[in-house]
Amino acid sequence: MKSKRRGLYATVAAWVALGILGLLFDGWLLSQMAIYFCYGMFAMGLSLIWGQAGILSFGQAIFFGAGAYGFALVTLNKIPGLGVSVAMGFVVAIVLATALAAVIASLTFAARGLSGAHFAIVTLCAAVVVETATTRSDYLGGYNGLFGIPPLSWNGTMIGDHALYYLMLSITLLAFLSVVAIIRSPYGTLLEAIRDNEHRVRHLGYVPHHLKSAAFILAGALSGLAGALFAAQFGFVSPSLLGFALSTQVLVWVAVGGRAVPMAAMLGALVVPGAENMLSNVLGDVWLLVIGVLFVAVVVAARGGVFGNLLRLPLPQRLRE
Amino acid sequence: MEFVLDTLNYFSVLMLVVLGLVVIFGLMNVINMAHGEFILIGAYTVVAVTSAGGSFWLALVIGSLVAGLAGLLVELLVVRHIYTRFIDTILATWGVSLVLKQTVIVIFGPTGQSVQNPLPGVMNVFGVEYPRMRILIIGMAFGLTVVLYLALFSSRLGLKLRAVIANRDMASTLGLNTRRMDMASFSLGAGLAGFAGALMSPMISVDPQLGVGFLIPSFLSILLGGLNSLLGPILGVGAISGSTNLIAGWLSQADTQVIVFLLAILVIRLFPEGILKRRQK
After folding, report:
1. Residue B135: pLDDT over 90
2. Do the Cβ atoms of A289 and B212 come within 8 Å?
3. Crossing angle for the helix pair A262-278 and A244-257, nearest 10 degrees?
4. Which of A120, B80, B159, B223 has the smallest number of CB atoms closer than 10 Å to its CB?
5. In the A/B pair of chains, how many CB contacts fall below 8 A?
């Protein structure tokens, strides 16, 4: 019994540690850490579809980037009639990402659907297409992207470093609790069943492509929110946010962290790029090499990833013997 | 005429890359995302050998061998553990591609390098002045394709390979060493990619992102053509290279890429045969 609870204690301890970190640092480092929470949320979205439902997407950055661009377009007043409010920015970001996810889901999952390999390669192509198309659009700023997105403020004053860190921590915690609630619900169990054997789920009277589409759209919405928060803090969006590179990086973070456990996936997204950023150029290249080797090792031998087994929550009550 | 030659040139380069992928996928059912990095290995070997004073032609041979050896290592260390887990092979070979690319960056640095053209000048083909090196690439690609297909259909080794492709378990029961065939085909596929990379290195800027650029068109070619017949991939390569050059006639390169990829996705969505059909067997 005690060992089953270990994951719960470890998860709570990890959140407490993230809370304490906010007290230890300040200035530039703290604002960097706040930005990484966006990657954390993005990673949890991928964990939901990949770790739980077994949908391997090579194009998740499409939705992250759509959120970032959506937020940027509104706050820079490039969409007439919507005003420049931050709230409207978040609404547009999430709606845009959700709509794109719905379109891709309806094109790929419907009818007999695409197999895993086809889906992976088609999403990969889609990410390249979206990235290239964005660089060709003057409205979206082309190669240079969009500059000067106003920072988040409250009653006219800019939110300070510490307040921003804890704001991001709270939003990420909420996202984490939502993802965990989905995974532990009966719907989450169905997603797991689809991952293990889609054919049997179909024969039990469910429609797998509806269930998969719903998960894909939820992950898209979460990625959109993460992208909008990223744009708000970074102040600048560029085509690389919705392309091939970020799509594949997030796969690596999530796999190394632990794909089936949202908390592990999130920590992967904090640690891997965080360390890369801290290290110097030469060491950074070596670090990427190390991460590449670790990624291969995790895929071949240890599906749980580095943090997965430690942070795995106990089964929901209804599934216990 | 120049349009035909340009199309043939792209077709040839893509064909060389796809041949290696087809060998690996056909035999082992492994989608090799690291294929582009074997191209990279071939090209960078040429950079290393020629800057050490070796001739381009020597470098061409060494480049193919080094890539083939790297392929053998990848097969032994990674692929053989997971070739029954289809989706994981995509991920693991993607990881391998990151590792190989990063190794190249650590050794050679992230910037582009150039290789001196061993066959400068132009020659007259059907009334068009065309670079001699490109003619050589076209000739080599066609020659290699013919050799490979002859080897597959009229040699003992080819017979064994086709037996394993048709029914792996049965071939193994009949005494064929499928493990050795896997190793051989993976390093052959990697070697072909290395050869492609080495051969085209004088015509391009050799930089670490080179492999990724070939990955998507070559996979699209395979998915488009399907692998049910050996002609499929050739048709796929023809469709991708033909439409790319056709559209590039009046649009920019970036727009062309967007349109070709979208068309390919559409066709794959409407006719998801190829890989699917083999998988469902």
Report:
1. no
2. no
3. 120
4. B159
5. 106
**Does residue B276 have a pLDDT over 50?**
no
Residue extents of the structural domains in chain B: 2-111+124-207
- Residues of chain B in Cβ contact (below 8 Å) with chain A: 31, 78, 81-82, 86-88, 90-92, 94-96, 98-99, 102-103, 105-106, 212, 216, 219-220, 223, 252, 254-255, 257-258, 261-262, 264-265, 268-269, 272, 275-276, 279
Of the candidates B92, B219, B258, the beta carbon closest to that of A121 is on B219
The closest CB to that of B272, out of A114, A291, A296, belongs to A114
* CA-to-CA separations, A27 to A22, A31, A237, A276, in angstroms, rounded: 11, 6, 22, 19
pLDDT interval class at A176 (50, 70, 90): very high
ipTM computed for the complex: 0.83
Report pLDDT for B279.
45
Cβ-based neighbours of A229, under 8 Å, separated by 6 or more: A37, A38, A41, A168, A171
A20, exposed or middle or buried, with CB in 10 Å at 0-12, 13-18, 19+?
exposed
Q: Which of A251, A296, A298, A303 to mutate to test the interface with B (most CBs of B within 10 A)?
A: A296
Mean pLDDT of B139-154: 86
pLDDT of B223 > 70? The answer is yes
Which residue has 């744009």 as its token pair? A231
Among A44-53, A100-109, A134-143, B160-169, the minimum mean pLDDT is found in B160-169
